[in-house]
Amino acid sequence: MIDDFMVASPDLWGSVGIALRDEVETRARQAGAVVSVTVSGAHDVAKRAALLSSGARLTSEWYVNVIDPSPAVAPIEDAI
Hints:
mainly alpha, globular
């Protein structure tokens, strides 16, 4: 599972970002993995487009709910 990765600029997702993901998958395949999961936020349009155009399929979404609104908890907007 690739929990998160980034590129220096959104316009690099289609090249550098996918090349990075492909390399991780190559190494994972060599170690016996059969599937990869890449997490991307809904707001990251360029990353999502690159993943979809590279053959990845959207299979789930996560929804976040603040259950402790105390000041010690970051605002929900910081998580999206």
